[in-house]
Design goal:
Blueprint (H helix, E strand, L loop, with lengths): L11 H10 L6 H17 L13 H12 L7 H8 L3 H12 L3 H18 L4 H7 L5 H12 L3 H7 L8
């Protein structure tokens, strides 16, 4: 199995393997090849862009929850570190160790997830970007395109509502 927890797209192969493994008539010997194939298929799938690793340390988890509740917060690293009761360097090191991502990467991903949810719920592109903490429509559109390979308007035109795209 992959060494970390990841979110992957449910491909037809993965769906078929999971369906086969749900059958009651498979004993351990007949189940093993399915499990091996599933593990191999999962390890080859790219991480889904909506994945957001969460820290396990209580102070970092509280900080992450606060940022998720206020994605437009402009608090800088020193302010965030102070609010978490640790030094800037400790915050950066611990967050990286716990999530595998820098706080900056995590924050960008969290903001884009927030904006995607707002778009899926019918918010305008401008409102979604501003709610997520982007200073301008251009900055939001640029970040969005890097993240999903489409502009917000292209994504919104093809999105299945409600919810996030497949």
């Amino acid at each position: 199995m992959p060494p970390d927890i990841r979110v992957v797209r449910a491909t037809p192969l993965l769906a078929a393997l999971l369906e086969a493994l749900r059958r009651d008539d498979l004993d351990a010997e007949r189940r093993a090849p399915y499990c091996l194939t599933l593990a191999d298929a999962l390890s080859r799938e790219p991480c889904h862009p909506f994945y957001l690793p969460m820290p396990s340390d209580a102070r970092l988890r509280n900080l992450a929850a606060r940022l998720m509740a206020q994605p437009a917060s402009a608090d800088d690293l020193d302010t965030l570190a102070h609010s978490a009761g640790m030094s800037r360097r400790t915050l950066m090191r611990r967050f990286q160790n716990e999530t595998g991502w820098s706080l900056g990467q995590w924050r960008r991903q969290m903001r884009l997830r927030h904006a995607l949810q707002a778009l899926a719920e019918g918010a305008s592109i401008t409102a979604a970007g501003m709610e997520a903490g982007y200073d301008s429509l251009g900055a939001f559109s640029s970040a969005f395109k890097r993240f999903l390979g489409k502009t917000p308007s292209e994504w919104q035109a093809k999105a299945i509502k409600p919810g996030l795209p497949d």
